[in-house]
Amino acid sequence: MRGKKLFAAALSLLVAGAVLVTGCGGGAKTTGEKKEGAKYTFRLAETHPPDYPTTMGDKKFAELVYERTNGRIKIEVFPSGQLGEEKAVIEQVQLGAIEFTRVSASPLAEFNKQLGVLSLPYIFDSDEHMWKFLTSDMGNKMLDGLETSKMKGLAYYSSGSRSFYARKPIKSLDDLKGLKIRVQQSKINMDMISALGASATPMPYGEVFSALQTGVIDGAENNYPSYYSSNHYQVAKYYLLDKHQRVPEVLLVSKAVWDKLSDEDKKIIKQAALDSVKTQRELWDKFEKESEAKLRAAGVTITEVTDVKPWQAAVKPVIDKYGPEYKEVLEAIDKARK
Ligand code: GTR
């Protein structure tokens, strides 16, 4: 499966040029001229399986673009990491070799520092708080800010909150001490794990199941839907609901591709992305509950953290280290709390 992905990743680099040329079957030129009414076929890389809420959001987005351009712009969604792991996909999106993707803001922040603020632990009190911020001027500015990193942010999607899980019982902060925990490929996440007394092992998502199974790592962290759909719960049955982060998902397009589109097409694509958020969020809320129920039914031990204060105190060095870089954004996040 992953071998196939490597092949797909290599192939997509080779066909990078070809996609733009064949994609412009309707007659648009590849010289940068923006042609009204041009035909395109684009690819959207998604790490989750076909029925996962982000994938369903991507598909809704593609469907709206197709309808609103009368079939002129076709976006094919490639789920299950077929086009590669998130970090590699982002690199290819920067090159224009893959046109669209939906990724977590955590790995994305390695390419665009400003987004790192979204990975800071315990900065959002609730989903409501996070969405109030994401839909504020500052939230939108951060999506637009991706242009400095050769991408264009289109919309945010929901991803709930992330909590720890392990192969052996974990019931409190103390139980994390010394454990080898997989994290997304992001520096802030590594610092957060160290601050909590565990040892951080960054690794692509697709490798986590076998690393858990073979004991290369002791645990990982994610929301209920990912923990469930990745089957990690089958090999790491103890979930500690500490909700240390709420990292939104980001739907984005390569700037190289965006700059070639006509203003009309840009408008349609941006609006379709925003309109797909409603579908994604509804499906997210539903799937979050369903996956929790399925995890409980499968015998997973879920321990709720009733007092997050010791957790917040433990990660304070991370906030102290990165906070000053994000002063203005943190103020806007604080404002969205009120
Ligand atoms: C999920 C997220 C994925 C991926 C994954 C991970 O919650 O939706 O895009 O980033 O976490 O932990 O790698």
Tally of helical runs: 15
The top-level CATH class of the largest domain is: Alpha Beta
Rg, nearest Å: 20 Å
Terminal Cα separation, in Å?
47 Å
Which ligands occur here? beta-D-galactopyranuronic acid
How many beta-strand segments? 11
CATH architecture term of the largest domain? 3-Layer(aba) Sandwich
Order of helices and strands: HHEHEHEHHHEEEHEHEHEEHHEHHH
Broad shape: globular
Low-confidence runs of at least 5 consecutive residues: 1-32
Rounded average pLDDT: 92
Coarse structural class: alpha/beta
- The CATH topology of the largest domain is given as D-Maltodextrin-Binding Protein, domain 2
What is the assigned CATH homologous superfamily of the largest domain? Bacterial extracellular solute-binding protein, family 7
The fraction of residues in strands falls at: 15-25%
Characterize the biggest β-sheet.
5 strands, mixed
Q: Helical content, roughly?
A: 40-55%
Main-sheet strand order equals 2-1-3-10-4
For the record, the count of structural domains works out to: 2
Keywords: Signal
Signal peptide: 1-21
GO molecular function, one term: carbohydrate binding
GO biological process, one term: transmembrane transport
Secondary structure elements and pairings:
Elements: H1 2-14, H2 16-23, E1 40-46, H3 53-68, E2 73-78, H4 86-95, E3 100-104, H5 105-108, H6 127-134, H7 137-144, E4 151-157, E5 162-166, E6 180-183, H8 187-195, E7 199-202, H9 208-214, E8 219-222, H10 224-229, E9 238-245, E10 249-254, H11 255-258, H12 263-297, E11 301-304, H13 309-314, H14 316-322, H15 327-337
Parallel strand pairs: 1-2, 1-3, 6-7, 9-11
Antiparallel strand pairs: 3-10, 4-10, 5-8, 5-9
Helix pairs in contact: 3-12, 6-15, 8-14
